[in-house]
Structures are given as structure tokens and as C-alpha cells.
Amino acid sequence: MAPNFTLTTLADKRVSLSDFRGKPVMLNFWHAASLAETPSIQTFYAAQQASGKDVVILSVNIADDASIGRQFVHYLA
Fold first, then answer.
1. What is the pTM of this model?
2. Alpha carbons within 13 A on the beta-carbon side of 16
3. Domain extent listing, the chain
4. Separation between Cα atoms, residue 50 and residue 27, nearest integer Å
């Protein structure tokens, strides 16, 4: 079991890994210069949802400020 941690979302909500206990969780640590894996993660998530699996993906920016994170979320939408 992974150690628990708590982070703050772009919406200023606190989220802990333990909030998702019992569900499969994928952790993705990223920064703006390393987004090549994003399409693969989106494909993986869509396939899990289509097969009825309830998977959680936590994408954690490890280097950039919140404005870069917001741009990334806007890009994905």
C-alpha cells in the first residue's frame, strides 16, 4: 500500500490518496515539458470507463506553478 499524502487541487480542494481507498489509482507525476504520455493516459482512462472499471487518475504537477496547471487542464478540455 502506498503511503498517504494530501495535495491541493487547482480548485483549492484538498485531496488525499486515502480518499480513494479500495479503488485502483494511477499516479502521474508531470511537468509542462513532459506531456507526451497524456494521450496514452486519456486512452487508458477511456478504456477503463468503457469496461465498467472505476479507476482514479491523480495527475500531480511536480515543477510548475498553478497557472501552468490550469493551462494544461484547459488544453485537455
1. 0.78
2. 6
3. 12-76
4. 20
